Amino acid sequence: MATTAGRPSRQARVSRPRAARVTPSLVAGVLLLAMALVLLVSASPPQARPDARWQAFLPPSFDRILVGPHGGAVWQGLIPNRAAPLLHRPSLVYLPPRLDPGRRYPVLYLLHGMPGSPYSYVRGLRLATVADGLIFRRALRPLIIVMPVAGKDGRYDGEWTSGWEDFVVHDVVPWVDARLPTIPLPRARILAGMSAGGYGAADIALRHPALFGTVESWSGYFHPLHDGSLAHATSMQLDAHDPSILLERVGGTLRRDGVRFFLSSGTTGDRRLAAQARLFAASLRRFHLRVQLLLRPGGHTHRFWRAQLPSALRFAAPPQPTLGGRSAP
Q1: What's the CATH class of domain 64-320?
Q2: How far apart are the C-alpha atoms of 197 and 300, rounded to whole Å?
Q3: For residues 38 and 40, what is the distance between their CA atoms, to the nearest angstrom?
Q4: Where are the beta strands (DSSP E) in the chain?
Q5: What is the mean pLDDT of each run of 10 residues along the chain (329 residues)?
Q6: Rounded to an integer, what distance in angstroms lies between the CA atom of residue 327 and that of residue 329?
Q7: Which of 245, 250, 79, 253 is nearest to 175 (CA)?
Q8: Which residues are CB-neighbours of 103 under 8 A, at least 6 positions away?
Q9: CB 75 within 8 A of CB 58
Q10: pTM
Q11: Which among 329, 309, 260, 310 has a CA at the least distance from the CA of 139?
Q12: Chain-centroid distance, C-alpha 315
């Protein structure tokens, strides 16, 4: 660098950075930005923490895999299956936030589609986020949600119908009532499912009419398909698993016990199942059963099931009346 008498040249003096001037407007701008950041942080919900007391109810083999925005948690683990003791595919359990150790909770049992897994509810439908939000806003009664696995690749090696039915009725429900703080009564048990799981929910509930007080079928069908586990079924076997035929046999019992039904289907990409839902809803009403039929644009997709999920959950466990700001007993 060229210099004169030991001093920097004119070019060097010009290129030297000049100190920034601090003006009142600059100070005001910085203060406004800081205030905006403080407001943004304070408005953001705090990081939810799962309630550690739930760990006292679940076996040590269960692992927490997800925490909802308000502290509800999803756990995965094995529910013993007497018919398939070597089955090592985990089931999932959602436990609600703000646990009250002295309280009992209703249970929603969710059957997945075929092929499929319980993770479709957690990943595809974002169940924990939706349930946590509804419970936080008191639009949903706090509840336990159990998502049992159906078996290898969503099937029980050709015995899906009877295998899943036996697992849910004889293993899952007793296991849940024995370990978790449930209300062990039909009125507090809800059986639901999507797609083939929706058919399974209607089939199992009508074959065991004293076990569940609410039945939900999301894009399910109401006549058994002659494929899968029923590919070689006789007419008598098909009739034994046909919700439309079963309803004629147990409709009076369902009315006496006040069993409720929620049916949903897309109307643009799932017209055939929407038509079946309409007909089955009409059959339920003939027995003076309470039924909510939700038909809206959509197809046989997770997008539709996510859209109808809040309505399905609220029907399953509507919020209890409040007395002086507190939930009624």
Answers
A1: alpha beta
A2: 13
A3: 5
A4: 3-4, 7-8, 63-67, 73-77, 91-95, 107-111, 144-147, 189-194, 214-218, 260-266, 290-296, 322-323, 326-327
A5: 44 47 55 49 44 73 94 94 78 91 93 89 96 97 95 46 82 96 97 95 96 97 75 81 95 97 96 96 98 97 96 95 50
A6: 6
A7: 79
A8: 142, 181
A9: yes
A10: 0.81
A11: 310
A12: 13
Q: What is the pLDDT of residue 192?
A: 98
H or E stretch at 200: helix 196-207
Half-sphere exposure of 14 (CA within 13 A, CB side): 3
Q: What's the DSSP call for residue 120?
A: I
| Average pLDDT of the chain to the nearest whole number | 83
Angle at CA of residue 294, ends 293 and 295, nearest 5° = 115
CA–CA dist 312, 329 (Å, integer)? 23
How far, in Å, are 89, 208, 240 from residue 162 at the CA level? 18, 13, 11
User: What DSSP line would sit under 284-317, residue for residue?
Assistant: HHHTT-EEEEEEES--SSHHHHHHHHHHHHHHHS
The CA–CA distances, whole Å, from 322 to 124, 224, 318 equal: 33, 42, 12
**Domains of the chain by residue range:** 64-320
